[in-house]
Amino acid sequence: MDNEITLSFIAKSENEALARMVMSSFIAAIDPTIEELSEFKTVISEAVTNAIVHGYEEDGVGKIDIHAQRSDREIIVSIVDYGRGIQDVNQAREPLFTTKPEEERSGMGFTIMESFSDYVDIYSIPNRGTTVTITKKFVPIQESCRIV
């Protein structure tokens, strides 16, 4: 392992941007491409937003923990909430499934995370919380493509 970080914050929507910024800074040392950085930020945003909106019903009180490890060009990130949990993880992973259709939620959060990651694991216990673990391998940048 080259580096690791743990970040804890209150489940408020404004903290989604904080999580995205901190995690973007954490991966800066591996010099990701713009596309990789954009995808990674999207994955973090989706996972944190799910925890805030679904885990805590946007109560602004619950806590979210993020733990990330970097080994060479691979990042493993776990986003943990201690909220409502997911009743049926397989159903939640289905594209377009949402528990909040009245809020015009797209139901694409896990689908987006899976498309921009190499691996996504979801562990959830109803009324105890959810852990979403994401693995992403960043492609080495060719020296000839590097902007100096």
Topology:
Blueprint: E1 3-10, H1 14-27, H2 34-55, E2 63-71, E3 74-81, H3 89-93, H4 109-115, E4 119-125, E5 129-137
Antiparallel strand pairs: 1-2, 2-3, 3-5, 4-5
Helix pairs in contact: 1-2, 2-4
What does this structure look like?
The protein has 148 residues and is an alpha+beta fold. The protein has one domain: Histidine kinase-like ATPase, C-terminal domain (Heat Shock Protein 90), CATH 3.30.565. It is built from 4 helices and 5 strands. Strands 1-2-3-5-4 form a 5-stranded antiparallel sheet, with helices on one face. Helix 1 packs antiparallel against helix 2 and helix 2 runs antiparallel to helix 4. The longest helix is centred in the first third of the chain and has 22 residues. 27% of the residues are buried. It catalyses: L-threonyl-[protein] + ATP = O-phospho-L-threonyl-[protein] + ADP + H(+); L-seryl-[protein] + ATP = O-phospho-L-seryl-[protein] + ADP + H(+). One of its GO terms (molecular function) is ATP binding. One of its GO terms (biological process) is negative regulation of sporulation resulting in formation of a cellular spore.
